[in-house]
């Protein structure tokens, strides 16, 4: 498929035209636009609100690998993404002069029950193999106490602690700002104007403000709202594709060392960021009335995080934040050309791990837009697998 137009964002009377239209300026949409612009395509990114105003505008930014046993293509995809992200972030920072708050900080997991320790010990060898520790240096180790006294509390791991060195963290907002800045003069970002309607046959798009756009191809990267757009395009119920899952997080001013590892225990994340701040999270709510309000569930998360890491006790809460994660129907990301719609590709559903894999999700979406295929995509990420 050839998408190349002759002129960037050509305007014919009031009609815009581009090679690729990306709906949604979250981390997935901005990466898609960045990679497409690097390949010489004329790109328009539409966001119904503002770039980074969706789930990507949060606070946590944990980049954690899947467990190293029962390795499969999905885990390999995520591993390759996590391993390559540092370099991608460094390039982005060099290009834009903006820091992304990235640090390969590692992760500590307290081992609560005796069988957790047995499993953790079995994982040492599994990690060595699948993470190729000899080459990469990423390691999984088990010890009786945390390396840094009190981080987390020794009592949180009665059966010891895992310390792995592959996990990292990024500042979601700084990362989004750098991604957006990297598109300056390379793509057109239109904010406060969402994709309203579109026709796959002609790839003719109308925005909420009524602007018509002719696009060679459309990538739907509108986070959880992609499911609604897919429903409109295909006539299927949006829930066939996926649903939003609400999460609440907080940013604390804890005056702690920004180089400390992130801590993950029983669904609670404690993620040290720059300038002594620590993000804690997050809830996972499938039933909610207000997708963006915070409540006592977040208080519980803060209390749990403070028990885990007593250095957080009494820390000032700088911000409370809630957002909606896109969870595709089978939990994995959903990427590919929409069946029966050859000019429309979807890229969403990264759920809880999107920050670590968005650049690879975007590369696959672009492969679909340009070549109708992406051989490196795990089968479980395909739309067919989700709809099966
Ligand atoms: C509380 C919480 C904590 C999280 N923690 C982590 C974490 O630690 N690590 C991690 O990897 N992930 C984490 N996630 C998940 C991650 O934030 C999301 O999976 C990711 O940001 C989704 O990115 P996206 O680009 O797919 O969607 P979004 O960031 O939601 O972007 C979608 C964009 O599309 C726009 N849009 C919507 N409709 C339209 C339309 N019709 N036309 C044009 N634009 C439209 C929206 O305005 C929005 O800007 C967390 C999520 C939450 C809520």
UniProtKB/TrEMBL annotation:
Keywords: Oxidoreductase. InterPro entries: FAD-dep_OxRdtase (IPR006076), FAD/NAD-bd_sf (IPR036188). This is FAD-dependent oxidoreductase. Residues 19-362 form the FAD dependent oxidoreductase domain. One of its GO terms (cellular component) is cytoplasm. It comes from Hoeflea prorocentri. GO terms for molecular function: oxidoreductase activity.
């Amino acid at each position: 498929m050839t998408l190349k137009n002759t002129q960037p964002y050509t305007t014919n009377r009031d009609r815009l035209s581009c090679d690729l239209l990306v709906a949604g300026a979250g981390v997935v949409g901005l990466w898609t636009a960045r990679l497409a612009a690097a390949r010489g395509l004329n790109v328009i990114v539409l966001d119904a609100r503002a770039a980074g105003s969706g789930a990507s505008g949060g606070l946590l930014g944990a980049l954690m690998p899947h467990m190293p046993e029962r390795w499969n293509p999905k885990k390999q995809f995520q591993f390759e993404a996590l391993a390559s992200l540092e370099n991608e972030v460094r390039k982005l920072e060099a290009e834009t002069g903006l820091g992304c708050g990235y640090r390969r900080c590692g992760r500590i997991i307290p081992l609560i029950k005796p069988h957790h320790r047995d499993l953790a010990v079995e994982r040492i060898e599994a990690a060595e193999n699948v993470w190729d520790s000899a080459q990469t240096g990423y390691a999984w180790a088990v010890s009786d106490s945390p390396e840094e006294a009190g981080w987390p509390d020794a009592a949180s791991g009665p059966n010891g602690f895992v310390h792995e060195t592959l996990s990292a963290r990024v500042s979601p907002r700084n990362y989004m700002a750098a991604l957006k800045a990297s598109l300056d003069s390379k793509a057109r970002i239109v904010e406060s104007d969402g994709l309203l309607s579109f026709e796959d046959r002609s790839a003719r798009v109308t925005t909420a403000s009524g602007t018509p756009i002719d696009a060679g191809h459309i990538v739907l990267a509108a986070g959880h709202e992609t499911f609604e757009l897919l429903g409109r395009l295909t006539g299927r119920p949006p829930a066939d594709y996926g649903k939003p899952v609400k999460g609440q997080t907080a940013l604390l001013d804890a005056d702690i060392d920004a180089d400390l590892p992130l801590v993950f225990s029983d669904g609670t994340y404690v993620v040290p960021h720059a300038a002594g701040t620590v993000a804690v999270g997050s809830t996972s709510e499938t039933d909610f009335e207000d997708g963006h309000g915070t409540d006592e569930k977040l208080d519980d998360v803060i209390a749990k995080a403070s028990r885990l890491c007593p250095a957080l006790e009494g820390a000032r809460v700088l911000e409370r934040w809630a957002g909606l994660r896109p969870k595709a129907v089978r939990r994995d990301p959903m990427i590919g050309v929409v069946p029966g719609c050859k000019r429309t590709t979807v890229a969403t559903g990264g759920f809880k791990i999107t920050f670590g894999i968005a650049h690879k999700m975007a590369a696959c979406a672009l492969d679909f837009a340009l070549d109708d295929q992406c051989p490196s995509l795990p089968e479980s990420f395909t739309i067919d697998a989700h709809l099966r």
